[in-house]
Amino acid sequence: MAAIDVEPPKAETTMRTLKLSGHVGFDSLPDQLVNKSVQNGFVFNILCIGETGLGKSTLMDSLFNTNFESSPSPHNLPTVKLKAHTYELQESSVRLKLTICDTVGYGDQVNKEDSFKAVVDYIDAQFEAYLQEELKIKRSLSAYHDSRLHVCLYFICPTGHGLKSIDLVCMKKLDTKVNIIPIIAKADTISKTELQKFKSKIMQELQANGVEIYQFPVDDESVSEVNSTMNSHIPFAVVGSTDFVKIGNKTLRARQYPWGTVQVENESHCDFVKLREMLIRTNMEDMREKTHARHYELYRRRRLQQMGFTDVDADNKPVSFQQTFEQKRSAHLAELQQKEDEMRQMFIQRVKDKEAELKEAEKELHAKFDKLKKDHTEEKKRLEELRKKIEDDTIEFNRRKQQTTQSHHTLTLGKSKKK
Question: Which of 190, 213, 275, 390 is the most buried (most CB within 10 A)?
Answer without folding.
Answer: 275
